[in-house]
């Protein structure tokens, strides 16, 4: 199936009427996009992805297989979601208690990477170009360029814009881009 705006979806995908999908976005097997979702241009949604009604996805986002992006999640441009990573939207779910009015916002900033099987607990912001390692559980805000691993996730270093781990000199080994630590323990790219 091809959307009117130049996006495409596999015949097994379900795209509810009303979903807004940008040009050249590809939606693969057994994926469901709900009516209220907004998805940018040049995205790829892998097999068995779910996108809720109150979800905003920027341009050039890559969502790998088996990822559910629930309501109140925003993924900015160029975010990478690894296979089977998980988003939540309620802190204390109970089957017998409806908590839809208690959803917490989760915001993943431009260029961030979420590794395979990472869990993002609702109500956090993940900074630009942060790198969440496979299997990590994020329970608090993550600064830009931070390399986070473990349960709960802890910062063990810094990553460059290019996705390379930075050494003590804070220079990207692939591009030569330079970074510096600000007084408040934030990493900044030197212009």
UniProtKB/TrEMBL annotation:
This is Acyltransferase. GO terms for molecular function: acyltransferase activity. PANTHER family: ACETYLTRANSFERASE (PTHR43300), ACYL-[ACYL-CARRIER-PROTEIN]--UDP-N-ACETYLGLUCOSAMINE O-ACYLTRANSFERASE (PTHR43300:SF4). It comes from Azospirillum himalayense. Gene3D superfamilies: 2.20.70.110, Hexapeptide repeat proteins. PROSITE patterns: HEXAPEP_TRANSFERASES. Keywords: Acyltransferase, Repeat, Transferase. Belongs to the transferase hexapeptide repeat family. It holds the Pfam family Hexapep. Its EC number is 2.3.1.-. It comes from the Bacteria. Coiled coil: none annotated.
């Amino acid at each position: 199936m091809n959307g009117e705006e130049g996006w495409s979806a596999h015949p097994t995908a379900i795209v509810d009427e009303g979903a807004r999908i940008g040009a050249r976005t590809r939606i693969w097997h057994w994926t469901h996009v709900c009516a209220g979702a907004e998805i940018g241009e040049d995205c790829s949604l892998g097999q068995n992805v779910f996108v809720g009604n109150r979800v905003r996805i920027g341009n050039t986002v890559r969502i790998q297989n088996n990822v559910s992006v629930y309501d109140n999640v925003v993924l900015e441009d160029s975010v990478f979601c690894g296979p089977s990573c998980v988003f939540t939207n309620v802190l204390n779910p109970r089957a017998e208690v409806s908590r839809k009015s208690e959803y917490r916002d989760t915001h993943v900033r431009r260029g961030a990477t979420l590794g395979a099987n990472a869990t993002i607990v609702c109500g956090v912001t993940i900074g630009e170009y942060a790198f969440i390692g496979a299997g990590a559980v994020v329970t608090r805000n993550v600064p830009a360029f931070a390399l986070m691993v473990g349960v709960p996730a802890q910062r063990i270093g810094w990553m460059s814009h290019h996705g390379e781990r930075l050494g003590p000199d804070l220079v990207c080994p692939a591009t030569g881009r330079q970074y510096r630590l600000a007084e408040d323990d934030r990493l900044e790219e030197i212009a």
